Amino acid sequence: MANLSLEKRYGNLERYVRDPRSQIYVEALLDSISALVYDCDLPALRRNKNVDNFLSRYEAIANEINHTRLGPKDFDIVKVIGRGAFGEVQLVRQRDRKSVV
Fold this sequence. Notes:
By secondary structure, this protein is α+β, with helices and mostly antiparallel strands. 51% of the residues lie in helices and 18% in strands.
């Protein structure tokens, strides 16, 4: 791996980030940032200087990630298809596209 040129290494990283089957797919990275900020945002943990510095740096971007991504507010429920022990399955329509998902 050390023999690869810088361009090839960056190309490999870019492929990993773009591949939905990769563990470092962009969605997984965004989930990780959001989860880490959420989990570290406790008064007992914020007393640690490193945790506080991390939160100061990434808290705003984590909030932006959470507000930008798709969520329940982006859909209208068409009908409930089924209910089970873990929740319900819904047929929904995306508000801005009017497409059924």
